[in-house]
Design goal:
Layout (H helix, E strand, L loop, with lengths): L3 E3 L4 E4 L5 E6 L5 E6 L3 E6 L5 E6 L5 E6 L5 E6 L3 E6 L11 E2 L5 E6 L5 E6 L3 E6 L13 E2 L4 E6 L5 E6 L3 E5 L4 E6 L6 E6 L5 E6 L6 E5 L4 E7 L6 E6 L5 E6 L3 E6 L4 E7 L4 E6 L5 E6 L3 E6 L14 H9 L2 H14 L4 H13 L3 H14 L3 H13 L3 H11 L7 H17 L3 H14 L5 H21 L3 H12 L2 H5 L4 H7 L3 H18 L3 H13 L3 H6 L1 H24 L3 H14 L4 H13 L3 H14 L4 H13 L3 H16 L4 H5 L7 H16 L5 E4 L5 E3 H9 L2 H9 L3 H5 L2 H9 L2 E6 L8 H4 L11 H15 L4 E3 L10 H16 L3 E5 L11 H4 L6 H9 L3 E4 L18 H11 L3 H5 L8 H8 L9 H4 L16 H17 L37 H11 L3 H15 L5 E3 L2 E16 L9 E7 L5 E5 L14 E6 L2 H4 ...
Parallel strand pairs: 1-26, 32-33, 32-34, 34-35
Antiparallel strand pairs: 2-29, 3-4, 4-5, 5-6, 7-8, 8-9, 9-10, 11-12, 12-13, 13-14, 15-16, 16-17, 17-18, 19-20, 20-21, 21-22, 23-24, 24-25, 25-26, 27-28, 28-29, 30-31, 30-33, 36-37, 37-38, 37-40, 37-45, 38-39, 40-42, 41-44, 42-43
Helix pairs in contact: 1-2, 2-3, 3-4, 3-5, 4-5, 5-6, 5-7, 6-7, 7-8, 7-9, 8-9, 9-10, 9-13, 10-13, 13-14, 13-16, 16-17, 16-18, 17-18, 18-19, 18-20, 19-20, 20-21, 21-25, 23-24, 23-25, 23-27, 30-32, 38-41, 39-41, 39-42
Length: 1222
C-alpha cells in the first residue's frame, strides 16, 4: 500500500557547521534547541526560524541533549564524556566547568519527569543519575548502573518509576524505587538503537540497527512483543518520538528517511525524505509538526497530516476510541454503557453508543440512543447519530432532516461543517441516492478548495466503488470498470490514510475497500470480454497487496483465475491456429500464471514455443506438463516435438515411444482411438529403409563416403544413413501413417544419397578397388590417380555431398557379373547423379576457351554417355580449378561452355541438356559416337548400351565386330529403325548390313530434298483421274503395310523391302592399282547407276539367274506413318521407364480401315514418294539363296523410272518381299 511522501519541509533551521546530533522542544512550543558535532548548541524561535542564541561551552563534539519538562533546565553531553548544564531561559551554563560524567562519550540524556534528576548513559557501559540541585550523583545511586555493553538510549517512564536502558545487547527495565533491574530482554538481534514510551506508559517502542531496521512494540505489563515488527526502514533507526496525544510515532533512520506511523493500527502514513542520514526526530508540543535533522547539518520542520478525531466533533474517551477503531464493538458498547451508568445525563456517551449500535446494524437501538442523547441535550454529535440511525432504517427524509438540524450545532466552524457534509454524502450513498451524493461532493470540492481533500478523496472512492458495483450488477461492464478504476486511482488509496471518524462511525477500512474495488474491476473487465485488461488488473492487485490480503480473498482469487485460465487457453488456441505465436505464448503464460498446476497450459505453451523455434523453452514446458500429469500422452507429444526441433533425435524418438504407450493405456476410449493414426517407429524405419534401397537401385554398387574417405557397399551405405542425424530426424518426423504417404521420406533419402560421379580420361596409375578397399582415401599417399581421387572426394565433400563414385576404384573388375551390371547401369547412374565432375587432366590452369574442345576427354568413348546422361556437370582443369573460372552450379547452363561442347562433339545443344536415351534418332547417336575411341575394342559398343537403353551381355574378348554387331542388331531388331543400316565403309563379319567400325557412321546419309507439297498435291490430283492407277496404288500400299518389321536372327537380317533385280553389272575401266572399282549397274524399273566398291563383282553367267538385287528398304516414311522411335510427348525426356521399353512393330499402327478418300490419298502419295530418289542397298545372292550386302564407298542413290506406269506398278507389287541377308 502507498502513503504520503514529502520532500519539501515547512521550514529549515540552518547554521550548524557539522552534523546536527539532537533536538528538544520547550514546553511553551515556541522554542527549540539543537546540538551539533561542531561543539555548540543553538537556541531557535520555533515559529520564525530565527536563531536566538549560540551556546558554547563544550570541548568536544556534542552528542546528546535534554530539556526538563518545565523548560527550566537544559543538559548536553559530548564525546569526551562531559556534561554541561544550562539555564532554560537564558541559555547560560549553570556550572563553572563541565561535569566529567563518563569516561566515554555521552550517548543519551534524560530528565526525570519532576526534573529532580538527570540520567546519563555512555559508551563506557554505565548509566549515572545526577541531582539537578547539586549536580552531584544521587545518594541512592552513588554507584553507576553498569552493563556489559555500551548504552545507546535511556528513557524515564511517564510516571518516573522506571528507567529503561537500551544497550547493544538488551533492553533493561530499572526500578528507581528499589534500585533493581526488574526485566531484561533481547529486543533486536544485535543493537538496540532507540526507545520511546507512549504517554500512558502502556507501550514501549524500540528501534534496531541496520541488521534489523524495524520498530517493535512492547506491552509494558508483560514485556511481551505486540504484533509484528514495523517494517519500512533500510538503515539503523537512530531515534523514535511519540506525540503527546499518543496517536502517532515518528522514526529517524540512517536511510535518510523519517517515517510517520499511526499507533492505533501500526500503519505507516507518511515519509519525509532527506538528503542525508538522520540522527533525531521529535514532535512539537501541539503535535502539528515534526522536527528532524542529522548529517545534512540542519533541522527541518514538517507538517504532520491531520488524521485524528476532532474532539469538538466527536468527543470520546481514548479507551472507547481504541475499541471502536479496532472493531471491538462489544467492548466499546460496554465502556460507553459504564459511562452512562456513571452519568445518566451523559448525552455524548448516548450518541457514541448509538454509533456502536449502528455499526452492529442494530438500527432501532441506535435510533433510541440518538433520541435519548438529543433529549438530554441537543448537540452536533446527537443529530449525526440520529441521521445515521435513520439512514440505516432506510428513512431518507428523516435522514436529511437530522443532518439539516445538525448544521445548527456546528457554530459555523469550517472543519465541523466540512465533516458534517461528508457524513451526509456517506448517508446518501448508503441510501442509494448516488446522484445527490455526487452533486453534494462536487459542490463541497468546488466551494471548499481548502478543505480536507484527503477525507474527500476517501468518500469519493467509496462512492465510485458503489457506482461500479451497481453498474456491474446492471451488466454495464465498461461503465463499472471506469468507476472502479477511478476509485483505485484516487488519492485515497495512494495515501492509504483515512480519518478515524470514518473508521469509528462506519467501520471503513481502506484495505478492504481497495480489495473490493480491484476484485470488482477484474470481474467487470472479464465480463466485458477484455481478458488481457482483466489479467492486468488482477496482476496489479496481486503485486500491490500483502500476504494477509491475498489470503483473505483466496476463494474469489481461485475462482477468477480458473475462469481466466480457461479463457486464456481458448484464446491461445485461436492465436496458435492463426500462427500468432507471440500472442499464443502470452495467453498460455497467463493461464500458467493463474494456475501453475495446469498441465494442459504447459503442453499448449510448449507447442507454441516449438512452432516459434524456442526449443529449450518448449522442452522445459513439456517436462513440466509431464511432471504434472505423467499419465497423459500430451506432455510426451510436446516433449517429442521440442526434442525433435532441438535435434536431439534419439531422445525425441524415446519420447514418442512413451507417448504411444500412454495412448495405448489411456482410460478414455477417444484417447485410445488416437493411437490408430500414429505409426510405430519400427514401421517408420521400414518405410524409410525401403525408400533408401529404392534410391540406391539407381546408384553404383559401391560409393565413397566423402566424410570418412571409406569405400562403402550398399549395406554400409544404409548403415551410415541409419546412424546419421538426417535419418534420426526423418524418423522422429515420421509419426503418422499420413507421413508415409507423403513425399518427404523419398525426398530425404534422395537428398542424403545424392552422389557425385567423376568423368575423366584414364591415366597411367589409376587406383583400383584393392588400392582403397578398407582404407581412408584421404590418408593414402597423394600421388598419381590417388591425388586425383582425393581432390575429387574433397570437392564433393565441400559441396555438401555425402557420396562420390569413380569408375577406376569403385568396381570389382575381377567380378564379371559386377562388371556387366556396371556397364549396363552406368548411364542410369550418371543420369541420377546429383553432379558429374569432369576432370580435364590435359587442360592446364587458366586455359582459355577452346581448351575443352581440344581435350582428349572429348574423344573418349565412355565420356560420351557420361556427358549426355548427366544433368548437372562441372568442368575442372588439371589443378582442379573451374574451367574458364565459371562458378555457375551447372556448366550445361553456361552459354560459353555449351557452345564449345556443341562445336567439339557435334551433339545438338538440346540433346546435351536433355538427352533422351533409347532408339529415337539412332543414326545421329551413332554418328556422335563415331568420333570417339576406347582402349578396349569392345568398349566402343558397350559404352553405348545406356545411350540406346539396351541391356546386353558383356563379353570381353568377343572383338569389336561382334560387340558392335550385337549392339546394332539389337537396335534394328527392337526398333525396326533401318537408319542404323545407313553407313559407308567396310562390312562387318557379324552381318554384311552392319559396318565393321563405328567410324562408318561419321558421314551423314544423303538427304534427298522432298518434293514441295504443292507439287505432291498436283501429281496426286492428276493420278486420281485414273481409277486403275488408284486401285493399284491402294493394293501396293496394303501390300507394303502387311510386311513385318526388320529383324535379326542368328546374325541374319530379315529386311522387308522392294527389290529391283539387276540385269547387268559392267565394270568401268580404271587404273589397275586402284583398290576400288566402279560398276555400271542396270536394274529393272530403275535408272542406271554407278557403284564403287572394294569387292569384285562378276556378271551373271546366265541372264535369267538373278544374282544381284538393288533394294529399297521399307520405312515408315514411305507409308507416311509417324516414326515409332520418336519420344513420347512428355516433359520428362529421361524417364527411366522409357529406357528399356520394347517398341511395337513398325507397322502395327498402320491404318486397318480408313475412309476410301483417305486411303486413296495416302496410296497416291506413296506413288509420288516412290518416284523420288532413294538410298538403295546392293545385294549379292549367295549359294544358299541368302544375300550379302555389297559395301560401297559412297551412298547408293537409285530412282524408279516411272511409277505412273501400270505395268511398272504391277511389277513392283511382285517385287515386294523380305530378304534374308547374311
Amino acid at each position: 500500500m502507498s502513503h504520503l511522501t514529502s520532500i519539501t519541509p515547512l521550514k529549515v533551521f540552518e547554521d550548524n557547521q557539522s552534523t546536527a546530533s539532537a533536538v528538544a522542544v520547550f514546553p511553551d512550543n515556541r522554542r527549540m534547541i539543537t546540538c551539533s558535532l561542531d561543539k555548540t548548541l543553538r537556541l531557535w524561535d520555533l515559529r520564525t526560524g530565527v536563531m536566538l542564541k549560540k551556546m558554547e561551552g563544550h570541548r568536544d563534539r556534542v552528542l546528546a541533549l535534554a530539556v526538563s519538562r518545565d523548560g527550566q533546565l537544559i543538559a548536553s553531553g559530548d564525546e569526551s564524556g562531559e556534561v554541561v548544564t544550562w539555564h532554560g531561559e537564558t541559555g547560560e551554563p549553570l556550572t563553572l566547568q563541565p561535569i566529567k560524567a563518563h569516561s566515554h562519550g555521552i550517548s543519551s540524556l534524560e530528565f526525570s519527569p519532576d526534573a529532580t534528576d538527570l540520567a546519563t548513559g555512555s559508551g563506557d557501559c554505565t548509566v549515572k543519575l545526577w541531582n539537578t540541585s547539586t549536580w552531584r550523583q544521587c545518594l541512592q545511586s552513588s554507584k553507576p548502573i553498569c552493563w556489559s555493553t555500551s548504552v545507546r538510549c535511556i528513557r524515564y517512564s511517564p510516571s518516573g518509576e522506571f528507567l529503561v536502558i537500551a544497550t547493544d545487547s538488551n533492553i533493561n527495565i530499572f526500578n528507581l524505587g528499589t534500585g533493581k533491574c526488574t526485566a531484561s530482554f533481547e529486543a533486536h538481534p544485535t543493537v538496540n538503537m532507540s526507545i520511546a514510551w507512549t504517554p500512558d506508559g502502556a507501550r514501549l517502542l524500540s528501534g534496531g540497527n541496520n541488521v534489523d531496521p524495524t520498530i517493535r512494540e512492547w506491552d509494558t505489563s508483560t514485556w511481551n512483543q505486540v504484533g509484528d515488527p514495523w517494517t519500512g526502514h533500510m538503515g539503523s533507526i537512530k531515534a523514535i518520538a511519540i506525540n503527546s496525544a499518543g496517536t502517532l510515532a515518528a522514526s529517524a533512520s540512517e536511510d535518510n528517511d523519517v517515517r510517520l506511523w499511526r499507533l492505533s493500527d501500526r500503519r505507516m502514513i507518511a515519509i519525509f525524505k532527506h538528503s542525508h542520514s538522520m540522527q533525531y526526530v521529535t514532535f512539537s508540543i501541539d503535535g502539528e509538526h515534526l522536527l528532524s535533522g542529522g548529517e545534512d547539518n540542519k533541522t527541518s520542520k514538517w507538517v504532520v497530516p491531520n488524521l485524528g478525531i476532532n474532539p469538538n466533533i466527536l468527543a470520546i474517551s481514548m479507551t472507547a476510541r481504541y475499541a471502536f477503531i479496532t472493531g471491538d464493538l462489544s467492548n466499546a458498547e460496554e465502556l460507553l454503557t459504564q459511562e452512562i451508568s456513571t452519568d445518566i445525563n451523559n448525552y455524548t456517551s448516548y450518541a457514541n453508543r448509538s454509533f456502536v449500535m449502528a455499526r452492529k446494524n442494530d438500527w432501532d437501538r441506535a435510533l433510541d440512543d440518538a433520541i435519548k442523547s438529543i433529549s438530554i441535550q441537543p448537540s452536533l454529535t446527537g443529530y449525526i447519530s440520529k441521521g445515521i440511525a435513520y439512514c440505516g432504517k432506510g428513512h431518507a427524509r428523516d435522514t436529511r432532516t437530522a443532518f439539516n438540524i445538525a448544521f445548527l450545532f456546528t457554530d459555523q466552524e469550517p472543519e465541523a461543517i466540512h465533516f458534517l457534509l461528508l457524513i451526509k454524502v456517506i448517508a446518501l450513498l448508503n441510501l442509494d441516492q448516488f446522484e445527490e451524493a455526487i452533486l453534494l461532493l462536487e459542490e463541497l470540492a468546488a466551494t471548499r478548495p481548502d478543505a480536507d481533500l484527503l477525507a474527500c478523496s476517501v468518500v469519493e472512492a467509496h462512492l465510485r466503488v458503489q457506482l461500479g458495483i451497481k453498474a456491474l450488477n446492471d451488466a454495464h461492464y465498461d461503465e463499472a470498470a471506469d468507476h472502479l478504476t477511478a476509485a483505485i486511482n484516487s488519492s485515497a488509496f495512494s495515501s492509504n490514510l483515512i480519518r478515524e471518524e470514518f473508521v469509528m462511525l462506519f467501520g471503513w477500512d481502506l484495505k478492504s475497500l481497495w480489495q473490493k474495488a480491484h476484485q470488482k474491476r477484474c470481474d467487470a473487465r472479464l465480463r466485458a470480454g477484455k481478458l488481457e485488461e482483466a489479467l492486468q488488473s488482477f496482476r496489479h492487485m496481486v503485486d500491490t497487496t500483502d500476504d494477509n490480503t491475498r489470503a483473505s480473498c483466496l476463494d474469489w482469487s481461485n475462482a477468477f483465475k480458473e475462469e481466466c485460465s480457461a479463457l486464456c487457453l481458448v484464446n491461445g488456441d485461436a492465436a496458435l491456429a492463426a500462427s500468432d505465436h507471440d500472442k499464443a505464448i502470452d495467453l498460455y503464460s497467463a493461464a500458467i500464471d493463474l494456475n501453475s498446476a495446469s498441465y494442459a497450459a504447459f503442453v499448449k505453451r510448449s507447442t507454441a514455443k516449438s512452432e516459434k523455434i524456442l526449443w529449450d523453452d518448449a522442452l522445459l514446458d513439456a517436462q513440466k506438463a509431464i511432471e504434472l500429469n505423467p499419465l497423459s500422452y500430451a506432455g510426451y507429444q510436446a516433449k517429442h516435438a521440442a526434442l525433435r526441433g532441438a535435434r536431439r533425435y534419439d531422445e525425441a524418438i524415446e519420447a514418442f515411444k512413451i507417448m504411444l504407450s500412454k495412448l495405448d493405456i489411456a482410460p478414455e476410449a477417444q484417447i485410445r482411438e488416437l493411437r490408430s493414426q500414429y505409426v510405430s517407429p519400427p514401421e517408420a524405419e521400414d518405410a524409410i529403409q525401403t525408400a533408401a534401397w529404392t534410391e540406391l537401385e539407381s546408384a553404383p554398387l559401391r560409393l565413397l563416403n566423402t566424410s570418412t574417405g571409406l569405400l562403402c557397399d550398399r549395406a554400409t551405405q544404409i548403415h551410415t544413413f541409419k546412424t546419421s542425424a538426417v535419418y534420426k530426424e526423418l524418423l522422429s518426423f515420421t509419426t503418422k501413417y499420413s507421413d508415409l504417404q507423403m513425399g518427404r521420406i523419398k525426398d530425404v533419402a534422395e537428398v542424403y544419397f545424392r552422389r557425385v560421379l567423376l568423368s575423366h580420361r584414364w591415366e597411367g596409375a589409376e587406383p583400383l578397388l584393392h588400392d582403397i578397399q578398407d582404407k581412408v582415401v584421404y590418408e593414402l599417399n597423394a600421388v598419381g590417380g590417388i591425388a586425383k581421387l582425393q581432390s575429387f572426394c574433397k570437392i564433393a565433400r565441400d559441396a555438401g555431398y555425402h557420396w562420390a563414385w569413380m569408375d577406376t576404384c569403385c568396381i570389382d573388375k575381377n567380378n564379371n557379373a559386377e562388371v556387366e551390371e556396371t556397364i549396363n547401369s552406368m548411364f542410369i547412374w550418371y543420369c541420377h547423379a546429383a553432379l558429374t565432375i569432369v576432370y580435364l587432366c590435359d587442360v592446364p590452369p587458366s586455359s582459355g576457351s577452346g581448351a575443352l574442345a581440344n581435350s582428349a576427354w572429348n574423344k573418349r568413348g565412355w565420356t560420351y554417355q557420361e556427358l549426355v546422361a548427366s544433368r548437372v556437370v562441372i568442368f575442372y582443369q588439371k589443378d582442379w580449378s573451374l574451367y574458364l573460372g565459371d562458378q555457375s552450379p551447372n556448366h550445361k547452363k553456361s552459354p560459353a561452355i555449351m557452345k564449345e561442347l556443341v562445336d567439339a562433339t557435334g551433339i545438338d545443344e538440346q540433346a546435351l541438356v536433355a538427352f533422351c536415351p533409347g532408339m529415337h534418332n539412332a543414326r545421329e547417336k551413332l554418328r556422335c559416337a563415331s568420333m570417339r575411341d576406347t582402349t578396349l575394342q569392345e568398349d566402343i559398343a558397350y559404352s553405348l548400351f545406356g545411350v540406346f537403353g539396351i541391356h546386353l551381355p558383356v563379353m570381353y574378348g568377343e572383338n569389336k565386330h561382334n560387340a558392335l554387331g550385337r549392339l546394332l542388331q539389337e537396335i534394328v531388331a527392337r526398333s525396326g529403325d533401318i537408319t542404323a543400316l545407313d553407313w559407308i565403309g567396310e562390312s562387318s563379319g557379324f552381318n554384311s548390313c552392319l559396318p565393321v567400325s563405328i567410324t562408318s557412321y561419321a558421314t551423314l546419309p544423303r538427304t534427298v530434298p522432298p518434293l514441295p507439297e504443292d507439287d505432291v498435291q498436283t501429281t496426286v490430283s492428276s493420278l486420281r483421274r485414273n481409277t486403275r492407277v488408284v486401285n493399284l496404288a491402294s493394293k501396293l500400299y496394303d501390300e507394303l503395310a502387311s510386311l513385318r518389321a526388320p529383324r535379326f536372327a542368328n546374325s541374319r537380317l530379315y529386311l522387308p523391302c522392294i527389290t529391283f533385280p539387276v540385269a547387268e553389272v559392267r565394270r568401268e575401266s580404271g587404273p589397275a592399282q586402284v583398290t576400288h572399282s566402279t560398276y555400271e549397274v542396270k536394274a529393272n524399273g530403275l535408272h542406271d547407276l554407278l557403284i564403287t566398291t572394294e569387292e569384285t563383282l562378276m556378271q551373271p553367267a546366265r541372264p535369267n539367274l538373278q544374282t544381284f538385287l538393288l533394294v529399297l528398304p521399307l520405312n515408315r516414311y514411305l507409308l507416311e506413318l509417324p516414326d515409332f522411335t520418336e519420344p513420347p510427348a512428355s516433359d520428362d525426356t529421361q524417364s527411366e521407364d522409357g529406357y528399356w521399353s520394347v517398341p511395337q512393330s513398325p507397322l502395327d499402327d498402320s491404318p486397318s480401315s480408313c475412309p476410301d478418300s483417305e486411303s486413296h490419298e495416302r496410296a497416291l502419295r506413296l506413288l509420288v514418294r516412290l518416284g523420288q530418289p532413294f538410298s538403295a542397298f546392293f545385294l549379292a545372292q549367295q549359294r544358299g539363296g541368302e544375300y550379302k550386302r555389297i559395301a560401297s564407298d559412297h551412298e547408293i542413290i537409285a530412282q524408279v523410272k516411272d511409277m505412273t506406269s501400270v505395268g511398272d506398278m504391277m511389277d513392283m507389287m511382285d517385287s515386294i518381299r523380305t530378304v534374308e541377308i547374311l
